[in-house]
């Protein structure tokens, strides 16, 4: 089995993209004498690539959760700097201080988001340790 990178097949595509046209382009590319093929990745390489992709997705998810927390707090007049460390430092006061502008429902919802953020952070740390 041999693999051809899509960038090497693209010049042989003659019209709009569909399965038939793609197959024709691949067949034409394979027949070329000077065609370069891509080495097949080992299972270890595929595992490492999957770990990096999962970690990137978790980092994006953590950012989304933190931004949502900040947005909810901003709507209630509580402003935090964009750095996650600033939010982390102030979360204890946000969740425990009954005198702030949060309703019990909002405090509970932010607690759920904060727990999710901590879980995702733990998963990111575990993957980072594995990668190192």
Describe what you observe in this structure.
- By secondary structure, the chain is mainly alpha-helical.
- It has two domains: 1-40, no CATH class; 43-131.
- It has five helices and no strands.
- It has helices at residues 6-9, 19-31, 43-75, 84-96, 104-131.
- α3 (43-75) runs antiparallel to α5.
- The longest helix is centred in the middle third of the chain and has 33 residues, at 43-75.
- The chain is elongated.
- The two termini are 32 Å apart.
- The model has no long low-confidence stretch (mean pLDDT 90).
**Mass-distribution shape:** elongated
Number of domains: 2
Strand content: under 5%
What class do helices, strands and sheet pairing give?
mainly alpha
Task: Give the ordered list of helices and strands.
Answer: HHHHH
Topology (elements, then pairings):
Elements: H1 6-9, H2 19-31, H3 43-75, H4 84-96, H5 104-131
Helix pairs in contact: 3-5
Search tags:
132 residues, 5 helices, elongated
Summarize the model shown.
This protein is an all-alpha fold and 132 residues long. It has helices at residues 6-9, 19-31, 43-75, 84-96, 104-131. The two termini are 32 Å apart.
């Amino acid at each position: 089995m041999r693999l051809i990178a899509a960038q090497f097949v693209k010049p042989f595509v003659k019209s709009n993209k569909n399965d038939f046209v793609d197959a024709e382009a691949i067949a034409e590319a394979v027949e070329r004498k000077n065609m370069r093929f891509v080495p097949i990745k080992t299972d270890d390489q595929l595992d490492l690539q999957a770990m990096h992709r999962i970690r990137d997705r978790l980092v994006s998810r953590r950012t989304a959760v933190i931004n949502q927390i900040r947005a909810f707090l901003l709507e209630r007049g509580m402003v935090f700097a964009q750095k996650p460390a600033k939010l982390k430092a102030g979360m204890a006061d946000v969740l425990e201080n009954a005198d702030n502008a949060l309703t019990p429902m909002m405090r509970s919802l932010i607690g759920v988001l904060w727990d999710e953020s901590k879980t995702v952070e733990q998963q990111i740390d575990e993957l980072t340790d594995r990668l190192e």
